[in-house]
Amino acid sequence: MKLRITFVSAAAFAVVLCARADDLPTRFSFDRYEGILEHSPFAVATAAIAPAATPNFAKDLYIMSAAKSPDGDMVVIGSMSDKEFKKYLTTKGPVDGYSIANIEWSDEVGKTKATISKDAQYATLGFNEAEMSKPPTMRPGVPPAQNLQQPPTFQRPVGATPPPHVRGMIQRNPNAAPTTPNSSED
Prior knowledge:
Helices cover 15% and strands 19% of the residues. It contains three helices and six strands.
C-alpha cells in the first residue's frame, strides 16, 4: 500500500514538471475590464456636491409670545444671541422682511408653533423652554406680582378654639303662619 501511494505521488510530480508554459492560458491585460468598471451596475454612487449653505436666518430665533385678536394674529420673536432683537409680527403684513406664514395654536402653554419667512426662506419657531422657566424680570415702574396688595390674613392665637357654627331655625312648612313659642291663646 505504501508503495502505491509513493508511485502515484511521484507520477503526479513528474506530470507537473513536464507541463509546459505554452499550455497555460495567457493572462489578459487590465484594459479588458475598463468597460465593465465604467458602466458597472454595482458601482458606488458618488454624492453630488451640495451648494454652499446660506446662513439660516432663524438659527437663534424663538417665540417670546403669541396672541389672537380680531384684527389678526400676532407673534413676538426674539433672539437668544442678541438680547435686543425683538420683532412684533402680525398676519397683516411683513415687518423688516419677516412675515408670519402659519401659526399652529395649542391649548398647552408653550406648545404653539409659528412658521415665519424671510427672503423666501421658511423656519418653524417654538417657545424657548429656558426663557419660560425663568421668573419674570422687573420692569421699571411695574411692581412685581409678589408685592401687589394682598388681603390681610386672620391669624388665630395658638391654643384658641374657633366658635362653633350655629344655624338658624328652619321652618317645616314655609306656607304656614309663623308661631312663637312664648305666645299663649286666650
